[in-house]
Design brief:
The complex is a heterodimer.
Chain A: H1 17-71, E1 74-75, E2 78-80, E3 85-87, E4 92-100, E5 106-119, E6 122-128, E7 138-143, E8 146-153, E9 163-174, E10 177-188
Antiparallel strand pairs in A: 1-4, 2-3, 4-5, 5-6, 6-7, 8-9, 9-10
Chain B: H1 2-21, H2 40-89, E1 99-101, E2 113-122, E3 125-136, E4 139-150
The chains are: A alpha+beta, B alpha+beta.
């Protein structure tokens, strides 16, 4: 191959300085673009993941409270669970549920107790069941990133409560961006 | 004689010029760079990289929108359920006429509105439907919840 006045074969010709500089420049440019793309997507993925977690947690807590309240015979002032003693108040709720045996019949005079409370940034459901009940005792983590879990009632006396205003606020801080979810619902007890 | 030699020389010069200009097809390896096109591999790589970035971008945009939609739907469902509970807690005779209702949580939805429809199901039963509508970026959305409320019986 002949180029200009140089009479050297192509295979033995090196790259000129300009060519090398251009190649390095292009390489750096492409590398920066690709790295920015990957990092941007990684950041987006993390942010999205925690948004999903925030929305799901709020929804999960609310669903569990509703499910328990619809089965409850009444709210009680406090109950001692194997894990802790929980009292009904602004930040916790303790409900008394009629025990149900395997065939679906209510066991007379036998009750299960369920409590909802937040500890740190996690919301928990505690369950203490009577002998023969189909419900399973134990603590269950309902959601994380819980900023606040609050309850208010129509009556100060737990046993006279007819409805519960439950509100849950979840929030996460992902690389400077705040994602949050707020849900509130009024649940009437089916006890009267 | 003289003219035929001259013609031959002209033709020779023309073919020489053609070779210098590179018009004559030569094996690929020896082709000057500016006449070489892109190879199939290069084109495929370019299309793949561009396609992958486009796919990442669109999926990211769609995920964000889907999440927002789920969040709004959840809020709307809570509003409708709360209203339905309130209506159930009322006595049969105190059920309101069909119309709109207000709720604080509606402010969390874009152009959120609430509507109640009460209709006679039979002589001793009313059908109540609570619909929460709002404006989603892809048009209007709504969550309807329906229940029957009887003259006798509690919640």
């Amino acid at each position: 191959m002949e180029h200009g006045t140089q009479d050297v074969k192509g295979a033995e010709r090196g790259y000129t300085l300009v060519e090398t500089v251009i190649v390095f420049g292009l390489f750096a440019f492409i590398a920066i673009v690709v790295i920015a793309l990957i990092q941007g997507y990684g950041a987006f993925y993390r942010a999205h993941n925690s948004s999903v977690d925030v929305v799901r947690s709020a929804s999960m807590v609310m669903n569990e409270v509703r499910t328990a309240a619809l089965q409850a015979s009444q709210a009680v002032s406090s109950h001692t669970f194997p894990e802790a003693t929980v009292s009904t108040g602004e930040n916790a709720l303790v409900l008394q549920l009629p025990s149900i045996e395997e065939n679906g019949a209510v066991i007379p005079g036998s009750f299960d107790y369920v409590a909802f409370h937040a500890s740190g940034s996690d919301a928990y459901r505690l369950l203490d069941t009577a002998v023969g009940s189909t419900r399973h005792s134990g603590s269950k983590k309902l959601g994380s990133s819980v900023e606040s879990l609050s309850f208010s009632y129509d009556n100060q006396t737990p046993s006279l409560i007819t409805y519960i205003d439950a509100a849950v606020h979840t929030r996460a801080d992902v690389s400077g961006r705040v994602v949050e979810s707020e849900l509130s619902q009024r649940i009437y007890l089916r006890n009267r | 004689m003289d003219s035929s030699r001259k013609r031959l020389a002209t033709r020779h010069r023309a073919s020489l010029r053609a070779v210098r200009g590179g018009f004559i097809p030569t094996p690929i390896g020896q082709c000057p760079d500016r006449h070489r096109g892109f190879t199939l591999i290069e084109i495929l790589l370019t299309v793949f990289v561009l396609g992958a970035s486009l796919a990442l971008y669109t999926s990211a945009a769609m995920l964000t929108q889907a999440l927002r939609s789920a969040k709004e739907q959840d809020i709307a469902l809570r509003i409708a359920a709360t209203k339905l509970e309130e209506l159930r807690a009322l006595s049969y005779d105190a059920l309101p006429e069909s119309g709109t209702f207000e709720a604080d949580a509606l402010a969390a939805l874009r152009e959120g509105t609430g509507e109640i429809t009460v209709s006679e199901y039979n002589q001793k039963t009313k059908q109540v439907t609570v619909t929460v509508s709002w404006n989603h970026s892809k048009g209007a959305r709504s969550v309807p919840l329906s229940t029957l409320i009887t003259e006798v019986g509690g919640l």
